[in-house]
Amino acid sequence: MCSLLWSSIVMCVTIQLLQLGIVHPSPSHIRITHLPGQPQVEFHQFSGYVNVDDRNQQALFFYFAEAEKDAASKPLVLWLNGGPGCSSLGVGAFSENGPFRPKGEGLVRNQFSWNREANMLYLETPIGVGFSYSTDTSAYEGVNDKITGKDNLVFLKNWFIKFPEYRNRSLFIVGESYAGHYVPQLAELMLQFNKKEKLFNLKGIALGNPVLEFATDFNSRAEFFWSHGLISDTTYKVFSSVCNYSRYVREYYNGAVSPVCSSVMSQVSTETSRFVDKYDVTLDVCLSSVFSQTKVLNPQQVTETIDVCVEDETVNYLNRKDVQSALHARLVGVQRWSACSNVLDYELRDLEIPTITVVGKLVQEGIPVLVYSGDQDSVIPLTGSRTLVHKLAKKLGLKTTVPYRVWFEKQQVGGWTQVYGDILSFATIRGASHEAPFSQPERSLVLFKSFLEGRPMPQEF
Fold it and tell me: Cα(369)–Cα(362) distance, rounded to whole angstroms?
């Protein structure tokens, strides 16, 4: 029975027509026939825009890769990158866990793509990120978590009108970095909406190296640096006590770094060296600029420069006119597509609003949560995330159901894991960076598959 809400009537009629075979699922005008340089594949791809504010002409851009096989039986996964202000298309889809990666003039298959296990929906959010746009540029000013959450909810509601066959599908939301804010807040809004009108079949969320609680996450950096030999004993002491990292970031974004913090951070920067990548301390420098989604989480001293590769295949590929045409994308108000927005003015003080409390509410509502960490990331280290998950489990009275142990990918240790109450999980991915699916794609896929199936990480090989 259709409800009297207009959106529900449209949705219900569409589903009835779909069932009668009068309309074809997944609108053809946003179907991607072939991306330039793309290998032949059997699965369908779609991309385009969903309006989130018709009056102010605001639209969010998405890329959707259906599952490689048996798409009708696979869950729907929404992927969100962080920043705030970085692209889920360029970073998530084309550099981490999507079906293709740019190489030379074309694309190559990612054999560990997450669309092997799910229908993957990548959203460029908030407004002003990537190909997402507003014709009123004032919409880019003062954007915050509340606005982003509302727009993401409207996007999903309207996306289901375009893809009604996915309305009742099991839905998971996964994201990394500042998506530790985006994902729980969106999930909470979805549960609130469901109390009025049942629309979202939310089955779980997963958060990779996420910002969940400002002080704990950021201040874990000192111990990580020290334990990995990046700073001296003396510097560790002053970085932990005289000026910790959360204080420095707070001062930086308030526009007045104190002399003492400036001195401490200068010493930290000198010892860690700009020739070590902070997002994976085992990697050599010169990562592509598409991995700058953490620039907000890692503000630079005036004397320090970010070393990025001159050749950036993803940015070059997505700025090609033939590629934009194939994606049904357009540039509005900017000259070039960029991995992280140059026009968005985000309210960075939202960093200090803890979202671990929202995660707790989701768990209490029966939504499974996985927090996972690439264990070579010093920006949001595993120690902070593990501490927050353990404290939350204790607060909620959840008992350990899977004690802390290793998990395996093939015949190697893939990482470590612990599960509380069969609903709240923590896992590390061994050898992985802040962008775990980029640096450890096979291990990340094993973790993703276990998460979707609601199973503990593999205990044997």
Answer: 8
